[in-house]
Amino acid sequence: MTSIQQPSVTDTAAAAEAAIVYVCVTCRHPGEPDSDPRPGALLADATASAAQGSGVTVRRVRCLANCTRGPSAAVRVNGSWTYVFGGLDVGGAAALVEGARLLAGAADGIMPWRGRPEPLKRGLIARVPPLDFQEEIP
Amino acid sequence: MTSIQQPSVTDTAAAAEAAIVYVCVTCRHPGEPDSDPRPGALLADATASAAQGSGVTVRRVRCLANCTRGPSAAVRVNGSWTYVFGGLDVGGAAALVEGARLLAGAADGIMPWRGRPEPLKRGLIARVPPLDFQEEIP
After folding, report:
1. Using beta carbons and an 8 Å cutoff, which residues of A are at the interface with B?
2. Partner of B86 at 20 to 30 A CA spacing, among A14, A91, B43, B71?
3. Considering only CA atoms, which of A101, A43, A114 is closest in space to residue A75?
4. Closest by Cβ to A64, choosing from B62, B128, B137
């Protein structure tokens, strides 16, 4: 009965499969001394754990060049806008996975503001359009 | 003779054809009152002029969500990293076109630091990898 009105868990996981979270493993907290492991690496581990079973792919990258406002991550789905977030702590891991799921489910390729986890609102650094995007500007 | 050692103008333009500069037309200078046209729109016009004959495509977009550090633009080539820049003024137009050309000519998809115009060094906001990127992390 409800299967028509809302996607099943399996459908949701399938939709999220195309979603990728790139976590910068070299990020530090700005102004704090170096540490090992770095906050970015801890965020990557936490995000990978949070993503288990979600269908969201987590990729570790070395630098997203958002060094003054790290720890950083980017979220993208093939054909969507790409979102860069900063100022994340380990608590941002679940937010990244939820944001990736929201983006995967967005037909217009834009991560909805409503329902977007708080760390992905206050931590928004930039967004870039999909490759073939052309704005309708009068 | 020299055609073997360095690309001709035609080759360079062809290589740059895949390069896209997205300029945010809604950007203001942070902390300054609104104006019409907005600084972002002026930057887009200047970039379109600077790109003439270069093979670089300039696209106007409404918001790159880098509002606190605008005016903003992003540079990308299919398969390359995507670069977001901020704090640009109209003088950044030629820099964006030159950066796009550098990126189009980079076999590794990374905009070289050496030779990169100064506004694209000090104005770097973030970069995101190509969709299929997987970092080699031991």
Report:
1. 20, 22, 25, 59-66, 72, 74, 76, 78, 82-84, 86, 124-129, 131, 133-135, 137
2. A91
3. A101
4. B128
Cβ atoms of B73 and B96 closer than 8 Å: yes
A86 vs B34 pLDDT, higher one = A86
Complex ipTM above 0.90?
no
| Mean pLDDT across A49-55 | 96
Map residue A71 onto helix, strand or coil. coil
Per-residue model confidence as pLDDT tens digits over B28-79: 998 888 999 999 999 999 999 999 999 999 999 999 999 999 999 999 999 9
Q: Contacts of residue A129 in chain B, CB cutoff 8 Å? A: 22, 59, 61, 74
The C-alpha of A3 sits at a distance from chain B's nearest C-alpha, in angstroms, of 32
Spatial strand order of the sheet with A124-128 comes to A57-61, A19-24, A73-77, A82-85, A124-128
Q: Which two tokens stand for residue A11?
A: 């459908």
Task: Provide mean pLDDT across the span A32-60.
Answer: 95
